[in-house]
Amino acid sequence: MSLPPALSALLDRASVSPSLLQAPGPDQGALHLAVAAALRAPDHGGLKPTRFVFIDGEARRAFGEILADSLARREPATPPERLEIERGKPLRAPLVVAAGAALRPGHRIPVWEQEATAAAGVMNFLNALDAQGFGSIWLSSGALRDTTVKAALGFAETDALLGWIYAGTPAVNRPRPVRPEPDAFCRSWTP
Ligand SMILES: Cc1cc2nc3c(=O)[nH]c(=O)nc-3n(C[C@H](O)[C@H](O)[C@H](O)COP(=O)(O)O)c2cc1C
């Protein structure tokens, strides 16, 4: 069956492991389009909470220090070898993106809806990178909830960090996913 191209793209998107992401990373034009796609996520109240912070080149080293410091603070017993791994993580791919949400606590739109908008935006961002031939993966870590890390990246204490997006050019043909059987995940409701 021939599918509309936009639907094929959605069905075929797959994450690419950071170790398989090489230079070049997405250029400014590609990132601009990906952010524009993110801003088309449903947005109750039009609050535009979605935020992206790009970390590339040498800035990745400084960011690695921030991640290692965060881990050492959160888990003081962490052995030096493990801290070294944490320090090197951002260097695995040409671009790391801190994806976040600028939240408005107390607004009539609940915070969870604002976070849902930003998360939906991140998904659009990943799909837009994939559509332009770039690979990416959405990762997380305890550092996402570390207020020191948030501040270092320019986020307010009330903001949420939603993930680290690693992006680059896939080193191999991008793996295409096995599609789960939809029937197991949906049903019709009858009263
Ligand atoms: C909020 C969020 C955080 C995630 N954090 C991690 C993570 O820390 N490590 C990991 O291996 N996968 C993580 N994932 C899952 C990957 O992004 C990815 O979905 C998974 O590797 C499966 O690949 P696929 O997207 O091609 O199905 C996370 C996904 C989301 C939505």
TrEMBL record:
Residues in Nitroreductase domain copies: 13-168
What residues does FMN bind to? R13, A14, S15, R40, H44, W138, L139, S140
Name the EC number(s).
Answer: 1.-.-.-
Which metal ions or organic cofactors does this protein require, according to UniProt? FMN
- Major enzyme class: oxidoreductase
User: What does the entry comment about cofactor binding?
Assistant: Binds 1 FMN per subunit.
The molecular function terms of the Gene Ontology recorded here are: oxidoreductase activity
Claim: Oxidoreductase is one of the keywords in the record: yes
Is Aminoacyl-tRNA synthetase among the key words of this record?
A: no
Q: What protein is this chain from?
A: Putative NAD(P)H nitroreductase
Question: Which organism is the protein's source?
Answer: Neoroseomonas eburnea
